[in-house]
Design a protein that fits this description.
- By secondary structure, the protein is of the alpha/beta class.
- The protein has helices at residues 11-23, 37-44, 60-67, 84-92, 105-119, 155-166, 174-182, 192-203, and strands spanning 3-7, 27-31, 48-52, 75-79, 97-100, 129-132, 135-138, 143-146, 149-151, 171-173, 214-217, 221-224.
- A 5-stranded parallel β-sheet has the order 2-1-3-4-5, with helices on both faces.
- The radius of gyration is 18 Å and the shape is globular.
Length: 229
């Protein structure tokens, strides 16, 4: 039974969402204050966090900033704000996906299931490792090592890097990344993948202006260069 921490200060909405998720087999705890999330997260150890943006005590951005150094599970941001700036900032701070309220319960459920599927390692994949020069990826432990140093990656970032590395030397289409990693169709506007690729480049010493390790193939997707590590 997957565990979800629901962070939402609207008591009525939180109750409805919790009831719906429990009916679909999840163990759910609620929290209404942002400044109490970190402690509850350490005690409950949820598999996924549904995080509202506007919260008393500490907003969703602050919560992401606070927990991301040690919490490796998916964070689904739930927000009434439709601004691109807010969405990108949430992704920059470590959210894996976002849903704009009001949202249909089944849409929320689908997003949650997609994030959880992405973080599950199949028995066949547990022993797999990929090595490219100074870069080593370990699927079982979901770790990336570069120059013998552990690279701190979010769950989303590791999955994206693993997907690109598995197809080294090939252009991975943006549509395929959205379907496999995010769990939904690419609408032509979503910047989630772009933000994550920029994170990977920064963490792996790629050139932000003229990338040579993870290249952008304009109009198509991204190319992992196998001999650039």
């Amino acid at each position: 039974m997957a565990k979800i921490l629901l962070v939402e200060d609207d008591a009525r909405l939180a109750g409805l969402v919790q009831s719906f998720l429990v009916q679909h087999g999840f163990s759910v705890q609620q929290q209404s204050r942002g400044d109490l999330v970190a402690e509850q997260c350490k005690q409950f150890q949820p598999d996924l966090i549904v995080l509202d943006l506007m919260l008393p005590g500490l907003d969703g951005f602050g919560v992401c900033r606070q927990i991301r150094p040690w919490y490796k599970g998916p964070v689904l941001m739930l927000t009434a704000k439709q601004s691109d700036i807010d969405q990108v900032l949430g992704l920059e701070l470590g959210a894996d996906d976002y849903v704009i309220k009001p949202v249909e319960p089944r849409v929320l459920l689908a997003r949650i299931n997609a994030l959880l599927r992405r973080t599950q390692v199949s028995p066949q994949a547990e022993q797999q490792e990929l090595a490219f020069g100074r870069l080593l990826l370990k699927q079982r432990s979901r770790e990336a090592w570069f120059d013998k140093n552990l690279v701190e990656l979010t769950s989303y970032e590791f999955d994206l890097l693993w997907m690109l590395a598995r197809h080294a030397g090939q252009t991975v289409k943006r549509e395929a990344i959205h379907q496999q990693i995010i769990g939904r169709e690419y609408d032509g506007l979503d910047r989630t993948v772009d933000v994550r690729v920029s994170h990977l480049r920064r963490k792996l010493g790629d050139n932000a202006e003229v990338p040579f390790r993870i290249k952008t193939v304009w109009g198509k997707g991204y190319l992992f260069v196998a001999d650039a590590w």
